[in-house]
Write a structure and sequence with these properties.
150 residues; mainly alpha; 5 helices; 7% strand; globular
C-alpha cells in the first residue's frame, strides 16, 4: 500500500454509507454533534425531571408512612413527632450527592459544585427545621453539614 492509500485509510470518516431498498449504496453526510446550548438544555430538562420524579416519590412515600408510621418508627426515634419523615430527606440528600459526583466525572468541578449546592440547601433546611428532639443533636448535625462530613 502506498502512502496516499495509507493517508486515506487513517483519516476519520466524515460520511456514512447507507443502502436504499434496491441495495445501491449512497454516501450521506454524518449528522452534526449537538451544540453546547442543546446539551445544556438537555441537562436542565434531565435535572428537572429527576427532581420531579424524586419529589413525587418522596410525597408518595411520605403519604404511605403516615398510614404505616408504626412500622418505621425506629427511623424517627430521635426526631420530633412532626418530622418523622426527615430520614427520607437525609437519604435523598445522600442520593443527590452521589449522583452529582458520579454523573459529572468528565467535569469534576461541576460535580463538586453540585454536591456543595446540595449540602448548602441541606444545611439551610436543617437550620430552618431543627428536626431532632435534642438541641445538641441538631447542633451536631448542622456542624457535620457545615464541615462536609456527610
Amino acid at each position: 500500500m502506498d502512502s496516499d492509500h495509507m493517508a486515506i485509510a487513517t483519516r476519520p470518516r466524515q460520511v456514512e454509507w447507507h443502502c436504499d431498498r434496491l441495495g445501491s449504496a449512497q454516501q450521506q453526510p454524518r449528522a452534526a454533534a449537538p451544540s453546547p446550548a442543546t446539551m445544556r438544555a438537555a441537562t436542565l430538562i434531565w435535572t428537572a425531571q429527576t427532581v420531579a420524579v424524586s419529589g413525587t416519590l418522596l410525597v408518595v412515600v411520605c403519604a404511605r408512612l403516615k398510614t404505616c408510621k408504626d412500622n418505621y418508627a425506629f427511623l424517627a426515634e430521635k426526631m420530633e413527632d412532626s418530622f418523622y419523615w426527615w430520614e427520607l430527606l437525609l437519604l435523598l440528600r445522600k442520593l443527590l450527592i452521589m449522583a452529582a459526583r458520579m454523573l459529572n466525572t468528565s467535569s469534576p468541578s461541576r460535580g463538586w459544585f453540585l454536591s456543595s449546592l446540595v449540602i448548602v440547601f441541606s444545611l439551610w433546611a436543617h437550620s430552618y427545621a431543627r428536626p431532632y428532639e435534642d438541641p445538641w443533636v441538631d447542633a451536631a448535625a448542622a456542624l457535620s453539614l457545615w464541615t462536609g462530613d456527610d
